């Protein structure tokens, strides 16, 4: 039975704090290989399944790991399943490691796999958007955003009783009257022949405030998490901070 790495680490940590409490006897971990180091009789893998920012180190030994021969085909980015037992780690950087009893290669990865054990620039990561979530930075941002969203929903919806509403991303009104807008046009071979997609000018919304006010008149206190889009061409730190801070506040009538 597959167990998330987060659950493995939590269970093993709880067991280490309790007197005479045994660690999980056996576990099966699935994930992708973040890094791998191979020797003649032993190999070390760091695998991740996205459930924990820490990941899990796996130790494979030629004498005790079934399928050790397949380790030669395991490279960074490969997908694997490992069965083994959790033990205290002698290496620095992790308290626990998985001593593999068997390893199975689900999907191989070749030398063209772009994410390596080094720091990648944001510009490079934008060129591989399907792999970007596997980086620690993007994973951390995603988890923080998730926790913030859950806390906001609990505070506004659970404690205050506001209704969570979804405001349109596409609109024909300019809610704030300032800043450039992302316009929408129908596909056309010639750019000069492009026509409004909806028969009249429409764009990505810069704010859900007007829709939230209309909804508040009908259902009472509301708040929205709808995304907003501004077309200012600026890559400065100040603009990035403004973008992160800009969100639609709760509307109360």
Structural write-up:
- The chain starts with a helix and ends in an 8-residue tail after the last helix.
- The protein has a five-stranded mixed beta barrel. Strands 6-9 form a two-stranded parallel ribbon. A two-stranded antiparallel ribbon has the order 7-8.
- It has two domains: 5-107, Nucleic acid-binding proteins (OB fold (Dihydrolipoamide Acetyltransferase, E2P)); 122-245, BirA Bifunctional Protein, domain 2.
- The chain has helices at residues 5-17, 122-125, 136-159, 209-219, 237-245, and strands at 27-38, 42-48, 56-61, 79-88, 96-107, 163-165, 170-171, 203-204, 222-224.
- With 253 residues, the protein is an alpha+beta fold.
- The chain is built from five helices and nine strands.
Radius of gyration: 25 Å
Q: Mean pLDDT score, rounded?
A: 82
Give the helix level as a range of percent. 10-25%
Total DSSP helices: 5
Low-confidence stretches: 17-21, 243-253
The figure for the number of domains is 2
The CATH architecture of the largest domain: 2-Layer Sandwich
Large-scale geometry: elongated
Structural class: alpha+beta
Task: Give the total of beta strands.
Answer: 9
Q: Give the oligomer, counting copies of the same chain as homo and different chains as hetero.
A: single chain
Could you give me the name of the CATH homologous superfamily of the largest domain? Answer: Bira Bifunctional Protein, Domain 2
* N-to-C order of helices and strands: HEEEEEHHEEEHEH
CATH class of the largest domain: Alpha Beta
